[in-house]
């Protein structure tokens, strides 16, 4: 990316960020910023308790074989 393209991209991104209303996306972008500055902590610490419970539940389901393949999921969704 040349200097002109870089400036144009930055300007577009700033405009897009200023228009965001979704706090989740803003939080994600802030995490990326902190990470690029070497200031980010463990992402696990950034999760809500509900997010942690859901992730651990998914891991437990996987370990117990209570999962399905992506292909099976999408086939089931498409075929009702």
Please give the structural blueprint.
Blueprint: H1 3-19, H2 23-36, H3 43-46, H4 49-63, H5 70-79
Characterize the structure shown.
The chain is mostly helical. It has helices at 3-19, 23-36, 43-46, 49-63, 70-79. The mean pLDDT is 90.
Rg over C-alpha atoms, rounded to the nearest angstrom: 19 Å
Helical percentage: over 70%
Distance between the termini: 46 Å
Integer average pLDDT: 90
Classify the beta-strand content into a percent band. under 5%
Order of secondary-structure elements: HHHHH
Structural class of the helix and strand makeup? mainly alpha
Question: Can I get a quick summary?
Answer:
The protein is mainly alpha-helical and 80 residues long. The chain is 75% helix and 0% strand. The longest helix is centred in the N-terminal third of the chain and has 17 residues, at 3-19.
Task: For this entry, give a set of tags.
80 residues; mainly alpha
């Amino acid at each position: 990316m040349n200097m002109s393209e870089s400036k144009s991209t930055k300007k577009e991104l700033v405009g897009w960020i200023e228009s965001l209303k979704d706090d989740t996306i803003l939080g994600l972008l802030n995490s990326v910023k902190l990470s690029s500055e070497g200031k980010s902590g463990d992402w696990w610490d950034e999760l809500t308790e509900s997010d942690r419970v859901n992730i651990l539940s998914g891991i437990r389901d996987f370990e117990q074989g209570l999962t399905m393949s992506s292909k099976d999921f999408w086939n089931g969704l498409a075929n009702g």
